[in-house]
């Protein structure tokens, strides 16, 4: 396994070119970068930029992964650039991105089903849209993935649906099986399923056979008058114990790339997307929220609640800061790189304990 | 639960209790101002002067240790004179402990059959029974399902002999799902609803009440907080109206003729739901009900394993007894008679 990072949340993502981001990543000891989409690497799919990115990655022995974007037609209007790169033909836009990826040897491509929204309560997640039932959104996503699948097969690519915050691991496995695990896999974000009341150890067991890309991420959980509050923390400082996860992933895919995903650095006083200033999205005490999780079983929910309690106990013991105090901290570029370093250290220590080699392919 | 939510619940709960129009009773040990060595006649007098129209005895032996008919009739007359209806508990009905809890001689004073007969002299209006303890539920051999199955003929035998309602109380070992099924198998069996007990089985008090509402004969009044602790939840007793139980909503669901009986519990119970082995003994529990229960919970103290004392009110027994006394004295008169 190799240990790198998502590129989108690293400092410089909005200002540096893809080749420059790779150079920066190499300086910080990252084994590779996972660019969120091909359009993040170059908005025009410039072949020169892409070739240069591949050359820089190869020169440093780094892995290179990327993505396509949302495959949920109900959310595609939020990403007009995909349709634009196809000159108005959305599927052509996806094809062009896939061909550009294949041309530089990228075979693993991230996809997802929605974006987090800046609303309070369950409406932060498109899972609870009132205009488009979630079952309809899942069906439409599977249908579009089915349209893209032959293109991916011809090009030797995998489309890897993320454990994004709105979807459960149960639904993801069904999606992968429906489209075909030969062409569809999973991008395993290790913290997001906490927002679906899933316990990381059980999520890992469900997903491990299908995982092809990762966001190695951690979060803390806190009780709240309306449910449970989720807040990203550096790896090893939340409730996602990678000792539950890395061995499972290594067993199924020892060549898997582990890509950190850190919190976006923000200007002083900036509010994160998932903020304590809004009602929590894990609206556990809202009957509609519970009803929206038909796969959730009480045993897993109880184990997840134990994680929340453990965070509360650690706050009371002074071991970790509470959510408001933590959100109020300064978090700029310097702090973002500290997050990277702390997370790298934790992942390396877990890998070493588990006897998992973090090395070149 | 926020502090403002807790305060408004206290006000609405007290208002609902005081204006319910139900008959009010009290368990003997909770009678206001009753000395530990006081006799049953004094208990009746004190209950009546406190405003209660029903007194639940822990056993008919509280009226006469030997079940002497003359003594029982004297107690009955005192109750009648003061307008107090008498009810009584029977020995627990667990099928594996009948021989040493009930004894083998049906005429012996500790045997339910003798007590049921004595109740005729005493004028008992309803009999109240429980089955077991949480430890019984957690046994693997015999299974809890087997124990419940064998409880059915025991309960049938009590109902057949009793000349007034036999009421199975929601107790720490049994869920309302199981209670409802038992009542279906034992025609004539009624339910004594004690919402502070259902939480011990991780049942939301309102959902539990809805399950058994048509079967409810009596409602046992107490209050508690659900405190989050490292291994799950703890039931921490609270003054009436200052816990998390939605008494206004509970009373809306149960039959209007069901009396309210003050029954202050002493035990703090732990629900270590983070243990899969313990949780496996709750097969009827759903995520929806567990979430509803957590919505009523409050954080624990800074000491892992110890719930925070107090909350909006005091959890000390003396304080709880004084609050019960105040409510008894303040409640509106019953609009209908008795507990039968």
Structure in words:
The complex is a heterodimer of chains A (361) and B (340). With 361 residues, chain A is α/β, with parallel strands linked by helices. Chain A is 40% helix and 15% strand. Chain A is built from 13 helices and ten strands. Chain A has helices spanning 18-27, 38-41, 47-59, 80-85, 90-103, 134-155, 169-179, 200-207, 246-252, 287-291, 298-316, 323-327, 333-354; strands spanning 2-6, 32-34, 63-70, 108-112, 158-162, 184-189, 211-215, 218-224, 227-233, 257-260. In chain A, the strands form two sheets. Chain A has an eight-stranded parallel sheet. Chain A has a two-stranded antiparallel sheet with strand order 8-9. In chain A, strand 8 and strand 9 (227-233) form a beta hairpin. The longest helix of chain A has 22 residues, at 134-155. The radius of gyration of chain A is 19 Å and the shape is globular. The model of chain A has no long low-confidence stretch (mean pLDDT 96). Chain B has 14 helices and twelve strands. Chain B has helices at residues 3-18, 40-50, 69-82, 98-101, 112-122, 134-137, 144-161, 176-185, 195-198, 205-212, 247-253, 276-279, 287-295, 317-330, and strands at residues 24-27, 54-57, 85-89, 127-129, 166-169, 189-193, 216-221, 223-229, 232-238, 260-262, 269-271, 297-299. In chain B, the strands form two sheets. Chain B has an eight-stranded parallel beta barrel, surrounded by five helices. A four-stranded mixed sheet of chain B has the order 11-9-8-12. In chain B, helix 3 (69-82) links the parallel strand 2 and strand 3 (85-89). Chain B is globular.
């Amino acid at each position: 396994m190799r240990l790198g990072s998502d590129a989108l949340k690293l400092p410089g993502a909005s200002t540096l070119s893809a080749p420059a981001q790779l150079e920066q990543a190499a300086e910080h000891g990252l084994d590779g970068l996972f660019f969120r989409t091909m359009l993040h690497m170059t908005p025009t799919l410039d072949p020169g930029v892409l070739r240069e990115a591949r050359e820089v990655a190869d020169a440093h022995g780094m892995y290179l992964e990327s993505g396509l974007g949302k495959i949920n037609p109900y959310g595609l209007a939020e990403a007009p650039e995909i349709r634009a790169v196809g000159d108005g033909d959305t599927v052509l836009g996806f094809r062009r991105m896939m061909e550009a990826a294949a041309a530089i040897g990228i075979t693993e491509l991230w996809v997802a089903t929605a974006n987090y929204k800046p609303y309070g309560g369950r409406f932060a997640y498109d899972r609870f849209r009132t205009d488009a039932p979630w079952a309809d959104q899942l069906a439409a996503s599977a249908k579009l993935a089915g349209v893209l699948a032959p293109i991916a097969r011809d090009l030797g690519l995998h489309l890897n649906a993320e454990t994004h915050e709105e979807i459960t691991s149960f639904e993801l496995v069904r999606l992968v099986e429906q489209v075909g695990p030969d062409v569809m896999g999973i991008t395993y974000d290790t913290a997001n399923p906490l927002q679906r009341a899933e316990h990381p150890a059980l999520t890992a067991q469900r997903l491990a056979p299908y995982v092809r890309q990762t966001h190695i991420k951690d979060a803390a959980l806190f009780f709240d008058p309306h449910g449970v509050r989720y807040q990203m923390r550096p790896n090893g400082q939340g409730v996602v114990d990678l000792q539950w996860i890395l061995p499972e992933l290594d067993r199924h895919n020892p060549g898997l790339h582990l890509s950190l995903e850190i919190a976006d650095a923000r200007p002083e006083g900036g509010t994160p997307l998932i903020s304590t200033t809004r009602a929590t999205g894990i609206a556990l005490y809202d009957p509609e929220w519970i009803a929206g999780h038909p796969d959730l079983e009480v045993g897993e929910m109880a184990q997840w609640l134990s994680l929340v309690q453990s965070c509360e106990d650690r706050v009371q013991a002074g071991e970790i800061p509470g959510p408001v105090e933590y959100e109020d901290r300064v978090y700029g570029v310097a702090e973002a790189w500290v997050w990277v370093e702390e997370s790298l250290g934790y992942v390396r220590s877990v890998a070493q304990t588990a006897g998992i080699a973090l090395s070149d392919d | 639960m926020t502090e403002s939510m807790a305060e408004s619940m206290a006000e609405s709960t007290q208002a609902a209790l005081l204006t319910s129009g139900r008959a009010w009773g009290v368990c003997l040990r909770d009678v206001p101002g009753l000395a530990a060595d006081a006799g049953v006649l004094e208990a009746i007098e004190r209950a009546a002067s406190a405003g209660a129209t029903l007194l639940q005895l822990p056993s008919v032996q509280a009226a006469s240790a030997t079940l002497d008919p003359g003594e029982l009739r004297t107690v009955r007359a005192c109750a009648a004179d003061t307008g107090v209806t008498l009810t009584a508990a029977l020995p627990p009905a667990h099928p594996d402990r009948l021989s040493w809890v009930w004894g083998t001689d049906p005429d012996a004073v500790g045997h339910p059959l003798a007590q049921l007969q004595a109740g005729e002299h005493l004028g008992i209006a309803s009999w109240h029974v429980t089955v077991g303890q949480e430890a019984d539920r957690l046994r693997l051999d015999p299974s809890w399902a087997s124990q419940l199955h064998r409880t059915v003929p025991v309960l049938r035998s009590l109902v057949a002999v009793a000349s007034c309602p036999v009421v199975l109380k929601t107790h720490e070992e049994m869920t309302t799902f199981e209670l409802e099924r038992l009542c279906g198998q034992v025609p004539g069996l009624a339910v004594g609803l004690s919402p502070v007990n259902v939480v011990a089985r991780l049942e939301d008090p309102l959902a539990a009440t809805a399950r058994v509402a048509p079967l409810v004969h009596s409602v046992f009044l107490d209050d508690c907080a659900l405190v989050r602790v490292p291994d799950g939840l703890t039931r921490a007793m609270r003054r009436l109206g200052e816990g998390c139980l939605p008494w206004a909503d509970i009373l809306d669901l149960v039959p209007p003729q069901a009396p309210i009986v003050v029954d202050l519990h002493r035990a703090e119970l732990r629900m270590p739901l983070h243990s899969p082995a313990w949780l496996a003994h709750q097969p009827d529990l759903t995520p929806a009900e567990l979430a509803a229960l957590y919505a009523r919970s409050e954080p624990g103290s800074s000491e892992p394993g110890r719930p925070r004392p107090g909350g909006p009110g005091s959890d000390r027994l003396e304080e709880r007894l004084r609050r019960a006394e105040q409510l008894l004295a303040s409640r509106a008169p019953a609009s209908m008679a008795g507990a039968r």
